[in-house]
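Side project, low priority. Logging it here so it doesn't get lost.
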Amino acid sequence: MTSTINLSNNLYPTPTKEALRKRFVGKSIRDVEAPAAVIDLAVASHNCYCMTQATEDLDIHFRAHVKTHKTAELTQFQVSNFAGKARIVVSTVVEVEHLLPLIQAQQSIGREFDVLYGVPPSSTCFARLKRVRDTEHGPSISFLVDHPLQLQNIVDTGASDPTLVFIKIDAGYHRAGVELDSAEFASLLQALSGYARSKRIQLRGFYVHMGNSYSGNSPVEALRFLEAELNSAREAVRLATEGGFNCGQDGGFTISVGASPTATSLQNLFNPVVAHDTPEVAEAAADVKTLIEKLKKDVDVEVHAGVYTLLDMQQLATHARPSLAPPIRSRDGPLDHIMDESNLAFTILAEVLSVYPQDRTGKQEALISAGSLALGREPCKSYDGWGVLARVVDADSEKIPPARRSLTENNWVVGRISQEHGILTWVGDENSTVDGEKQMQLHVGDRVLVYPNHACIAGAGFGWYLVVDSGAEGMPVSDKIVDVCKLTSSTALVLV
C-alpha cells in the first residue's frame, strides 16, 4: 500500500501553493496581472451553506460535484458542514488525485470519503483510480455505467470487494445514460445480475442528471424538473426490483438526482418568498417535498450539484430561485433563498486595453484582455454576449456597487470575443442613470471584473484562483487577496 506521492513525476508542473501565496496574498487585485480568476470566499461559502441547510432540513444526503472549481479548499467547504460520510463526485481522474491529500487527512481521523467517478469510465482510467483507492487512507470509489461492456473493465481492476456502480439514467437530456424503457436498460440489468451473483460488482443505485433543466425560466419549472428526476429514479428502482435486484448497498438503493438548477430549487421548499408566491410555485414545492418523503421510506435519497458553489450567468438565467429587483446588497452578504447578482462568487479580472468611439460601430466599445480562453465561449439564453461587467475595480473598495434591476440592460457586456481579447459593448441607453448617477465610463488602464456565462468552463482555463473575502473585510466587495487555490486542471499527480 502506497502512502506518499512522488511529485518528481508530476506531469504538469506549476508553482506550489506556498509560492503562489507568497506572491499574491496581501496584494490587491488591482495590482496583479490580468486576466486572472477571482473567487469571493464569503459568497461561495454562503452558497454552500444554503445547500447544506436545504438538504439537512429534508434529511437527505448531498454529493458535492467538484468539477466546477477543481480545488481542495472549496471541496472542503462543500462537505465540511455535513455530518458523517463525505460524498463527492469527480469528472476526471486528476480531480480525485489532486484531492487525495485532503481525503487521506480526513480518513485518517475517521471521516470517510465516498467518491463517485461521474462519467462512464474509459478503459484507461482504471489503473490510476485503483492506485488512488489502494493508497493508505484512500477513498472508496464507485462508477457510473450505461453499457454492459463497461462492467468487464471494472472487474479487471481486480478489487477484492465488490465494486459499487450506479446506472446512469437518461431522463431526456440525451448526453449520457440509458433510457428506462429501452432494451439497453434491460440488457444492462441482466449483465449486472451475473456480476452480482459472482460478487464482483454490486448495483448501488441510479444516477439522474437533468441537464435540460437549464432551459427553465422560473422556480416552478426548476421544481418540476426535479420532480421528473425523482420520478425517473423511482421508476428505475421499480424495474430493478422487478428484475430480481432486492437492494443496493447497506440494504437499500441510492438514488442520486440533480443539476444545479434542480438542486438549488430545493431551497424553495423553505423559502418565505415562495410561500407567498404564485399557487403554482407553492404547489410544485409541496409536491416535491411529499415525493421526497415517500422515497425516503424505501431508498437513500441523494442530491448532487457543482456550480451552485460559484454560480454564473447561466444559473441566474434559469431563475430556479426567486430574485429581488433590484437586488438587495447589505454588509451581511447575500440573502438566504434569493438568487441574484449577490450570489455570484466568481469573476474574471481583465484590463481595459483601449476604448472606441460610438460612431465606429454605433455603440460604445472597449477592448479588454480576456477572450475565449479566459471567459469560455458558452452562450447564455438571457442575453447576447459572453460575459457581463460586474464592476470596475476602484481604488475605493468600500464603495457598494449600485443596485441593478438587470445585469444585461444598461451595462457593458462582452459582445464579441476572440482567443485572447474581448470587446465590451454598451447595451442600453447611453444617457441612462442608476440612483441618479450616470452609468460608468471605461478608460484605458481600468481593471474590470466580468461575470462569465459558465463558471465551470471559464475557471478551467486558469492554473489558480485568487481568493478575496468580502466577509473578512466586512464589506459587500473586497479587492484584497487572502489566499490562492490551485486547480486540478493544472496538476496531475502520478502515484508510484
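Brief comment: The two ends are 10 Å apart (CA to CA).
Revisit when time allows.
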